[in-house]
């Protein structure tokens, strides 16, 4: 007699085909299943097959991606810097701090200009949102949010409201009243609801709609009056850290950047990701459109800023230096698009010649990270907000 | 500007390379070069009075080395970068709690890699208490507590009142171990330990470089890497069992996600791309065209308000009369005239004088609809349909049949984009037809020239006083002209 070990096999109805057969007892992820041997084999094959399908899909995807890279490369017949050699060299730029706005009790995380070219809204880690007349440096309004780390704020195009949000996962709109004594918090309106922190918000060309980006990996368009979600944008595989609306009158697109190192261009109407750029080595902290709307710049934790052109469908320039080791937090263009102002985590602001790719100035002054930087609507100055609790206006 | 990025090539799948790590690695690379035997900073022992100061180099040594080896333009930049590296604790002044770099004979020492920030230190207050307590047990003048440290110690004593006996014992034990060390070694280790605490418990008023951006902090919390205990007080998670928190699982993409991804790549491949030479030319010509509007290059006509404190330029812009520069800009492209409210007004006025304003009014109305609250959209869409597209519409516009059919359908279930196709068609029409006529018209040309004439004439000093009155009457006339034919835009 052979020494054989017998499997204890039960006999009964198969979970799959319901036929009475000898069953094999298995546990799949702690769930017991009892299949007959035939169904067991079919399941194994299917498993293999779907594994195969997934594998072949992955391979197909990778092939297409490589092909896309090749196609993009083919049209790279010249470097931007080379063509830019014929552009006039920039003279000495004499930029200084013209105003310092003091009043926040903690890190300034975000700021935005009003269309009137002189007012600014800024938000801070301590939950305070302040509206300033930057020209006189007077504080005009202040709101205390019920949350700390207010990472996003925006001024409405009409100048009559502001939006802000952060760790509360919401974006709220506050109408600004002329009555200085009025309690702004009383009229607060919750518009956007995300499932993670709010990283960015902007009004789209009117007071009635807001576009938001969130740590939950999505961006969304909301109707302010009703709080209704008009469109959501899915595609980032990690936190969305920044967004910028295309400057065109006819355009319906915006670009977003995330912790997944990608910059995605979206169609507002369809919610589709229409273009994607994947060359950064770390989080993209800020994206800004070039004034013509044909390109955009990005600032990343890999300490570089880059220019991506939408028509060429590729990265066309990289702004970096070995001595710049800290991440870039925020960027914006001067009105003509010739200068790129970038604020870094090493407390400095570097000014780049967009066309020639060289650094034209380095601005010292802040005593901690520069978290936010925007050029004023008429291009006469730019404002930088910093973890040193202040904002500075440079011109 | 190509840059050899030797730091993060393996970024795919290396979840460890959080943004902070990237910076630490770069700084550590510099430190490694600084410590190079041949080309690094010369580290020496300096004789001072009755003792020796081991293992130091001067601030100027650092600055000189940086300028020579790091592609840095000037001393200011070197000092800034050096101060940052000191603030992160990679080297430190041996006689100061404040971590800055000075370009003089001040002595600095390198920090031991054990204390580097890349080891994800998060020391607890109990450790700090042990440290301060230990310091008070040592009879060296150089180890006397600074004011802020004494204050911290007092606070910690109150906070840990119940544990204090235990903390005291730990401090004693540490002090004992320290005493056994070689004198020179002790000097170095003491200073390095102090520098570590200067980073994690900085002097009040100094930047705490260990503060993290909350958006990134969730990724930086790597429990299997974080070190919390300097003196072995806490259950240092690292030294615990190897079965620590696993790295976050990378989710396998589903079949559907992969198909979607493939679709995306396909769509990208089908896209029409321009070659670089065309794109570069376009970028160049754009900046050239707008350089005279860029206040960073061309000073505004009156002055930059932020520099001169004179806000004339802003007042001029809000007035109804557009300056010559502004009118010129409308000629750059139809978007410029549509973007500027005064431009829109002038364009509309011109078209009305030619009885061809329906297109522009339609376009403006549709833009308006997209900006209204969603609640108002259905009504507005109906109004626009009636005014511009319905059979017998008072301001009938000409749209191609395809767009017309689509729009007819859309209007039945009106959304914000009901008129998208029609609007696109009308935009193209305006661009090629109405807009070019506008630019060629005497109306526009006069706007472009008229101000110029007046301005130049006014600038002559002999004419100035005489013309003050005339100028205001001209202005007045222009005002009334533009107020006459107030168009009623659908609101």
Automatic annotation (TrEMBL), chain A:
WD repeats lie at residues 101-142, 191-232, 233-276, 277-318, 330-362, 363-395. Residues 54-88 form a coiled coil. Keywords: Coiled coil, Repeat, Transducer, WD repeat. InterPro entries: G-protein_beta_1-5 (IPR016346), WD40/YVTN_repeat-like_dom_sf (IPR015943), WD40_G-protein_beta-like (IPR001632), WD40_PAC1 (IPR020472), WD40_repeat_CS (IPR019775), WD40_repeat_dom_sf (IPR036322), WD40_rpt (IPR001680). GO terms for biological process: signal transduction. Pfam families: WD40_Gbeta. The keyword GTP-binding does not apply. May interact with RGS9; this interaction stabilizes both proteins and increases RGS9 GTPase-activating protein (GAP) activity, hence accelerating the deactivation of D(2) dopamine receptor-mediated signaling. Belongs to the WD repeat G protein beta family. This is G protein subunit beta 5.
TrEMBL record, chain B:
Keywords: Cell membrane, Cytoplasm, Membrane, Signal transduction inhibitor. It is found in: Cell membrane; Cytoplasm, Cytosol; Membrane. PROSITE patterns: DEP, RGS. Residues 37-112 form the DEP domain. Residues 333-448 form the RGS domain. One of its GO terms (cellular component) is plasma membrane. The keyword Ribonucleoprotein does not apply. InterPro entries: DEP_dom (IPR000591), G-protein_gamma-like_dom (IPR015898), GGL_sf (IPR036284), RGS (IPR016137), RGS6/7/9/11 (IPR047016), RGS6/7/9/11_DHEX_sf (IPR047017), RGS_DHEX (IPR040759), RGS_sf (IPR036305). The keyword Membrane applies. Gene3D superfamilies: 1.10.1240.60, Regulator of G-protein Signalling 4, domain 2, Transducin (heterotrimeric G protein), gamma chain, Winged helix-like DNA-binding domain superfamily/Winged helix DNA-binding domain. It is a peripheral membrane protein. One of its GO terms (biological process) is negative regulation of signal transduction. One of its GO terms (molecular function) is GTPase activator activity. Pfam families: DEP, G-gamma, RGS, RGS_DHEX. PANTHER family: LP21163P, REGULATOR OF G-PROTEIN SIGNALING 7. This is Regulator of G protein signaling 7b. It comes from Oncorhynchus mykiss (Rainbow trout).
